What does this fold into?
Amino acid sequence: MTDNSKNSKNKFFRAEPQSQTAFPIAKAGWPIIFASAFVTFVLALAGLVPLAFIGILVTFFICNFFRDPDRVTPDKSDAVISPADGRVVSTGVVDENPFIDGPCLKIGIFMNIFNVHVNRIPFSGTIKKIAYYPGKFYSANKEEASTDNEHNALIMETDKQQRLCFVQIAGLIARRIICHVSEEENVVCGQRFGLICFGSRVDVYLPSDTTLDVVKGDKVKAGTSILGYLK
It folds into this structure.
């Protein structure tokens, strides 16, 4: 399955107002874009044409990396939506984990440098806890990255008192995790909550009886693709 064929049968909604620009950029990207553009401008003034050309390419790459496209979210009350763009690298029930007591269905999503890196809330509810861990920087597609790498875990509770957890994980290149929400904040499925810079991973922990709707190797999109259904 790729991008979930079931989505075509769903009604959709916008979790946030539509952007007023043709190419939305995440706020966190603007300082980096301006810095790259300024260096490119200086190189051009100095007559260093080959370096200035490289600077232009780098600036366009950074703009592309920090793109923040609008998304519409499936309007299904029991659907868990992907918090990240990328490829599903693991699925399965784990007996224990550092975030939620008891067995959980774990889904790992790897984001390469060409994916959109803005993260979105996978299910509506209340953020009960945010736990940051300053760890290592293994390649994010490896399983040890889930627990050993620097990460930021958000534990939420649904209206039915179900506990979910989604974890922003830094990768080999990624060295900055950004999170915009806070504890006890009510959030809506599909809304933006943060991003991870330059290649990373997001793990999702769901109740073990969740009906899985993706398989390893699937490509998913944040705010749009359905990962599974809560019971």
The two ends are 21 Å apart (CA to CA).
